[in-house]
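User:
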Amino acid sequence: MPYLVASDLPERPAGERFRALLGRPEILQVPGAHNGMAALQARAAGFSACYLSGAAMTASMGLPDLGIITVDEVSFFIRQVVRASGLPVLVDGDTGYGEVLNVMHMVRTFEDAGAAAVHIEDQLLPKKCGHLNDKKLADPRDMAAKIAGAARARRHLVLIARTDAAASEGLDGAVARARLYLAAGADVIFPEALTTPAMFREFAERLPGVPLLANMTEFGRTPFLTAAEFEALGYKIVIWPVSSLRVAAKAQEDLYTAIRRDGGTKAMLPRMQTRAELYATIGYADYEALDASIVRTIVPTGA
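Assistant: Predicted structure:
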């Protein structure tokens, strides 16, 4: 129970733990976890970190991914996922919620909420999903200033600079931006929406020794590649940002259709997590045992 028992809390800051994962020889696999339950399930499946996608957070709120979520709203999701799982969490920081001072505020707020890493992208508001068209890019110097501000504000947070430039400026533009962002203080580069394995390989070859993040989102411009394939192309991190939300949302859609059709949920029982499975996932018995070990009636002895 990492949330309630102090001795169960990690001793090292989240950013340091994320850096240690990056130091391992194998690629770091980071699935999206759009809420605390998803984070618990990711941990139970054996993952050592998880990802909070802006698209997944906004969609779970019934909103589009256009940069309209706030720092405080994201912090609510960060605290939820961190407290539930204890895993180091990589957070989607969109464009940084403003200019340099806003980015610095975001970094400190996310660190206080428990984030391990954040990525910031070089789009202008209203930003779009990286796999859509007509994205508007920030001046690379303005983006570099945001990275420099973030580096100055952080204590341990891993800074990841995302560039959406490949679609409009080609690999040359994306690589040039990446080098500028690294010089400004970025730890990792995230080239968004590359469309072929050859593009992924060339980008990596032109930035030797730089940790790179690959985005394996469904229904986008990037072809389906496995973690092993991304590793062979020269990438250190791979995320599956919205997969958990997509699966959960489809299941909920099927559930509501069944209730409306059948007047009940019996047909959906085989697809449900049972009560026992739910309680095991959230540690219900552990919390009860903790409560019983601490709470005891104290009988006054009188004056």
